[in-house]
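Re: weekly structure request thread

Next one in the queue (267 aa):
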Amino acid sequence: MVARQQISAWRPPVAGVVEVFHARFTEHTYPMHVHDAWTLLIVDDGAVRYDLDRHEHGTPRDTVSLLPPQVPHNGSPATPQGFRKRVLYLDMTQLDAGFIGAAVDRPDLADPVLRRRVGQLHTALARPGDELEAESRLALIGERLRGHLRPGLTARPPDGDPGVARALRELIDERLVEGVTLDEAGMLVHAHPTHLVRAFGSAFGITPHQYLMSRRVDRARGLLLDGQRPGEVALATGFYDQSHLTRHFKRVVGITPGRYARTGGVS
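Done, posted below.
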């Protein structure tokens, strides 16, 4: 039997994200209400019907719904089985008030690429220690949302910018253990966060987050071969905890840190 209601909510340490909210409802109906934040909604099962600014809308499969702040809306299941949804509440640093009118006119966006990216962001936000990945994905999502709401306003600059890419790589190398947020990197390198992500990928064929994790894994290998325990190595190399180290270590090296240490260095 499926539970009538399942909810999880948390506030991740990622600038711009006020709250992450996952829920399954079969009977709950939202009354008219407002939020101070933007509501970025994807529905994984079932469908939702809602009223926004006195107009009825729905969430067909593979769409992304963007509900603007301070505009009343409600919500209810559109099927007898209810719905399962994932929501991000984004503050005004991601989309300013100038986009509210366009979002009221067209809140449901049929964009498979955007839908996939939002799902990937939810996955990253659920993994402590992968904040740089979440920030990078959020930057690209914000760019795509602005492109939908005001086509032509946010024309994408050329990806190629090797000077910016090298500067970001040097910054990541300097801050390998303590890490750096994408916003902070943007201020230090004097480039927009979205441009940082695109320029880095264009120059090196890898995302900033992938580069950071692979460098940390490389350092962890040496410490493991020196005889340090995986838990100690995780903290010494900037990982959130041992499980965070294990996930990325296994992805890069193919085995767990403990097994790697027991090989005697044969790789």
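The chain has ten helices and ten strands. The longest strand covers residues 17-25.
Next request, please.
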